[in-house]
Design goal:
heterodimer, A: 501 residues, alpha/beta, Rossmann fold, six-stranded mixed β-sheet, globular, B: 325 residues, mainly alpha, two-stranded antiparallel ribbon, 15 helices, 4 strands, disordered N terminus
């Protein structure tokens, strides 16, 4: 079968445009049999579009695709799977309420003579398949009980069960712990040995050096460079990605918070979510919330922003005990919040860039008789879009067509338009490329310097350590410890996050 | 980094195609208008055109209210029942003077809207079940109050004036229709509340994070709808010499057809009053055309059913087009 120097897949001169955006411009790359090819690039570089062409969701405007040297016209997602291409997305497409085995054989379950599902055979096959990949998951368990990492592994098994030759993984490690990442990598190494090729997309450059053989860098819809991982290093990849050197990610100048306490939280409790959480927040301070996913961090900040009510405890804002019953009250008191969930919360996907930016500021764009003035609104939107360097073809572009990093900047622009005193950021750089990340970090630091108090919830330890003055670590809904700047180290934080101090 | 000067790089052809799709319903309207002018020599007469307007006024006013509810990701299945209850209230209270009658019927409309709005916005009950329930409730109340009779509707002269007279040669009812559309257009597209309604309909959680009290917004949409049903009932009693609860109830189907036909999405957050105006235009021409051409009632109903199904298909087509990129 391998006839062209082991090259399994070629994509040549692929171009694809959407209204107002040239998503891909003459992109070419090849995939060898049994290799892991990392595909990297900033958000908006065209990775997703490329993947969607390969998986049959989009059709390329120009260009050809070859598999085993034959020209292929991918007609749709089903055809793509028939061609041996399986795509595993960040959010799994497994059905949560049925078992692992059912998911693997969904739609093609083995049946008995009477047309009923042959559970024994199905479970046995699934078990063998999982074992052959050293995936330590029982085929009888419901998918919803599995961790994010285990679900990714089941997806891999599912892909192999349909004889996938090419597996595309889109940020598989975005939501999983480091230990699980190692397990996932072992399984990838396992399947590569079997001759399967993997296209691996990740923002975590370190992982590329652990798992990939070659790396292709995309920038602004073009292939910039393909190189062997062994001959490259993190800096050179970053340089190709952003087209410039970006220096130390977190900046190094030291800065100090002011003494004045702006927010004090005392024994805040919400049953089933968190208990007895207490901390103070000072002006100009970046206060970190660290801990494992599900430790209760997001729930605490959502309560402070008025989206949920606490069962007991006090919130003292500028020396005054307050009750915050709704998000609009929170905004009125000078608190804003950027949710971790860009898709459903921090940005209104179906609104244009303009409408998103001005949603909190509509009072400022009214004309004399109290109606929204189109001109004033446009001007205001333009001002914020430029100040926060949101990349968009026009102000009327719908937010859903922006890249993740730009959506995040849009969310920030919206929140900061009200000149808040307290800014709460929940995972502000999750799934965002290095360039935009750096911009957001610089922005956060500058805001703190100007005296804004910032709560930063983040699962990324380098980010927490690099950015924060103090860090509160939570574990299963309780505060483990509040660390001062000097005490911060990855080891300490991890220990605290798993509950031992 | 931001570069707002980049213009959309798409060519004239693509722009034309997009314009064509975005204004597809306007084109349908124009084609129908021209076609009807040829099909029937009675169509393009002042008398007939005014007749179309008279027939469309109640529907159009209600469609404005329904547009607001649908943009907030709801539907008010009780709208026509509110109309009936308000109309009955109006007629029954006319002995106490027209001001009492009109004010009372509008208040009844608002109260009906409040009941719907409270249950859907605040209690967060499912809008289909709630309005299905209140549909029966309001209709039953109207039947009880009217004792199921045909009521003589225009005992006060002002109603005959609204129903029959003209100002500057144009029927009084046309002013009701146009003013309603202007007010609702402004309300929806030019006020903070309108913008918040779109946000709520598009994405409720995100609207909440943006500091919008989504329960109030949704409640408000039903109250406004109740209010406009109340006002529409005044027009209804003016137009028809006799009111029967059953007549009013038939309006629901037409109103929803008009809104969806115009292109306001049932999935919420997308649409507008301009679209509803076009939807009304198309619907009114088809209804009028079928009468002019002497098509039997049963077939007219059949055509209306087909139009609603086509409108829903058009809605689905639009939704996919939005998700395409």
């Amino acid at each position: 079968m391998p006839s062209n120097n082991g090259i399994l897949l070629e994509m040549n001169n692929i171009s694809k445009s959407f209204p107002g955006v040239q998503a891909l411009d003459d992109v070419s790359f090849s995939l060898k049999e049994g290799e892991v090819l990392a595909l990297v690039g900033e958000n908006g570089a065209g990775k997703s579009t490329l993947i969607k062409i390969l998986s049959g969701s989009y059709k390329a405007d120009i260009g050809n695709i070859k598999i085993n040297g034959d020209n292929i016209d991918i007609k749709g997602t089903k055809h793509s799977i028939e061609l041996g291409i399986s795509t595993i997305y960040q959010e799994t497409s497994l059905v949560q309420e049925i078992t692992v085995a059912e998911n693997i054989y969904l739609g093609r379950q083995p049946t008995t003579r009477f047309g009923r599902i042959d559970w024994n055979t199905m479970n046995k096959n699934a078990e063998e398949l999982l074992k052959s990949l050293s995936i330590n998951v029982s085929p009888n368990v419901l998918v919803t009980r599995l961790s994010a990492a285990q679900q990714q592994m089941v997806e891999i098994a599912k892909a192999l069960s349909v004889d996938a030759k090419i597996i595309i993984m889109d940020e598989p490690t975005a939501a999983i712990t480091e230990e699980d990442t190692e397990n996932l990598f072992n399984i990838i190494r396992e399947i590569v040995k079997k001759g399967v090729s993997v296209i691996y997309i990740s923002h975590r450059l370190k992982e590329i050096f652990q798992i990939a053989d070659r790396v292709t860098v995309l920038r602004d819809g073009k292939t910039v460079k393909t190189m062997d991982v062994e001959e490259s290093d993190e800096n050179s990849i970053v340089r190709y990605m952003v087209g410039r050197e970006i220096g130390n990610i977190f900046g190094d100048e030291s800065y100090k918070s002011e003494k004045e306490v702006i927010l004090e939280v005392k024994n805040l409790t919400r049953r089933g979510q968190y208990r007895d959480v207490s901390f103070t927040l000072r002006k100009g301070e970046i206060f970190g919330f660290s801990g494992l996913v599900g430790a209760g961090r997001s729930e605490v900040v959502r309560t402070i922003f008025g989206l949920d009510r606490p069962d007991s405890g006090e919130i003292i804002l500028e020396g005054e005990k307050v009750k915050i019953n709704s998000s609009s009250e929170a905004i009125g008191k000078g608190i804003t919040f950027v949710s971790e969930d860009r898709r459903t919360e921090s940005v209104i996907q179906g609104f244009s860039v303009r409408e998103n930016v001005t949603i909190l500021l509509l009072k400022e764009v009214l004309n004399k008789i109290g109606l929204i003035s189109g001109n004033k609104e446009k001007k205001l939107a333009k001002k914020y879009v430029e100040r926060f360097s949101v990349k968009t073809p026009t102000l009327e572009q719908l937010a859903m067509y922006l890249s993740g990093g730009n959506q995040q900047k849009l969310a920030l622009a919206k929140c900061l338009s009200t000149s808040p005193k307290i800014l709460i950021l929940d995972e502000p750089t999750k799934g965002i490329d290095v360039g935009a990340k750096k911009e957001i970090h610089t922005l956060i630091k500058n805001l703190a310097k100007e005296g804004m108090a910032i709560i930063l919830v983040s699962s990324e330890l380098p980010e927490i350590i690099g950015m924060c003055h103090r860090v509160m670590v939570m574990h299963e809904g309780r505060t483990v410890k509040i660390f001062e700047k000097e005490e911060l180290s990855e080891e300490e934080l991890i220990h605290a996050a798993v509950g031992n101090v | 980094m931001s570069d707002l000067s980049i213009n959309e790089s798409t060519g004239i052809k693509k722009r034309f195609v997009r314009f064509f799709f975005s204004q597809a319903m306007l084109l349908v309207f124009i084609v129908l208008f021209i076609a009807m002018s040829f099909a029937s020599d009675k169509f393009l007469t002042t008398g007939n055109l005014f007749n179309i307007i008279r027939q469309s006024t109640v529907l159009g006013m209600m469609a404005c209210g329904m547009t607001i509810v649908i943009i907030g990701k709801g539907v008010d299945l009780s709208a026509a029942s509110i109309l009936a209850l308000c109309a009955v209230t109006n007629v029954m209270l006319q002995p106490f003077g027209y001001i009492t009658a009109i004010v009372a019927s509008i208040i009844v409309g608002i109260v009906c809207g409040l009941i719907n709005g409270f249950l859907i916005g605040k209690v967060k009950a499912n809008f289909i079940i709630v309005t299905l329930g209140t549909q029966i409730l309001f209709t039953a109340m109207a039947l009880i109050v009217s004792e199921g009779r045909n009521l003589k509707s225009r005992t006060e002269p002002i109603f005959s004036y609204i129903g029959k007279e003209s100002i500057l040669g144009i029927p009084v009812m046309a002013y009701f229709l146009v003013i309603t559309f202007i007010i609702f257009g402004v309300l929806l597209h030019k006020t903070i509340g309108g913008r918040r309604l779109f946000a709520t309909g598009l994405n409720n959680p995100a609207a909440k994070v943006a500091g919008i009290n989504t329960s109030n917004i949704i409640m408000g949409s039903y109250v406004i709808n109740g209010f406009i049903c109340g006002v529409a009932s005044v027009v209804l009693t003016s137009r028809l010499p006799r009111i029967r609860v059953g007549t009013a109830s038939e309006y629901l189907f037409d109103v929803i057809t008009i809104v969806v036909l115009g292109g306001t999405a049932l999935t919420g957050g997308v649409g507008g009053i301009y679209k509803t105006a076009i939807g009304l235009g198309i619907f009114a021409i088809i209804a009028n055309g079928m009468s002019l051409l002497g098509i039997p009632y049963e077939f007219q109903q059949m055509v209306k059913g087909i139009i609603l199904v086509l409108a829903v298909l058009y809605d689905e087509f639009n939704r996919r087009k939005r998700l395409l990129y």
